[in-house]
Amino acid sequence: MYYRGAQAAIVVYDITNTDTFTRAKNWVKELQRQASPNIVIALAGNKADLANKRAVDFQEAQTYADDNSLLFMETSAKTAMNVNEIFMLPKNEPQGAAGTGGRARGGVDLQEAAPQSRSSPCCGGGN
């Protein structure tokens, strides 16, 4: 129910905790099984600022992401490293999009489904 109709999902794990990486893999599996076949899934290894306490190897996570057609990036919420960048997810195109591997360059418009005008009142009420 959390991801019904979602165009994109970011699954986050803590690079200092292998259990969170295992749980992230379970979420990816769930999304691949239950979500839209065109969903864009990104895997984010958070707490990159704590690289000296790393428990999940960068290359292991990158290989997992590659094997599962996920976007992958390490981030740090503390220092804001790659936080904005992780939200610039490419759109998945219908199967057979020539030369793009199924991914286009444009970003997913997270506002696309519910455009609202600032000049109209919210929820049908007057001012």
From TrEMBL:
One matching Pfam family: Ras
Keyword Flavoprotein: no
PROSITE patterns: RAB (PS51419), RAS (PS51421)
One Gene Ontology molecular-function label: GTP binding
Coiled coil regions in record: none
The keyword GTP-binding appears for this protein: yes
Keyword terms, alphabetized: GTP-binding, Nucleotide-binding
Spans annotated as Disordered: 91-127
Family recorded in the similarity comment: Belongs to the small GTPase superfamily. Rab family.
Protein name in UniProt: RAB5C, member RAS onco family
Provenance organism: Amphiprion percula
